Amino acid sequence: MRRLDTLILLAVTVALWFAFAVEIFLQQFPCPLCLLQRVAFTMVGIGLLLNLRFGVRPMHYGVVILSSLAGLAVAGRQVLLHILPGNPGFGSPVLGLHLYTWAAIAFFALLAYSGIILMLAFARQNGVPCRFGFAEKFVAAAFFTIALANLISTVFECGLGPCTSHSFGYHWFRP
Q: How far apart are CA 175 and CA 171, in angstroms?
């Protein structure tokens, strides 16, 4: 399970990096719902990281499940906002689907993964703290880097107040 959690954390980290790259290089700034999805992915990553550091525990998967439910609710809301025929959606599609649709699929898959793991023999590891190997250190560093980059980017986009529906672009870098 530890290797599988590392692989899933890597996938979450890659998804966050990809969304960040779209923001930076394609100048497609995230809407408030997109930012909430990034928060949910970050919280999923924290739950998985807790498993890697402190051993597999149901409470850690609880963090993944609750974060995935919140992310699925937000991504599902955004899918429903753009479901009408003729609505171009928000942002450019990737492989035929918008990022929020991919996020909804990913959050559903994370829920299924957590449920299956909880049903399997998670008690084998007994929640014993584990030392990080190279792979876990690399994935943890990549995850923390993108989480910090998203936090900084959100502060630049929204300022220190709430993010509004008109928050497209970096407020602090406008002339």
A: 9
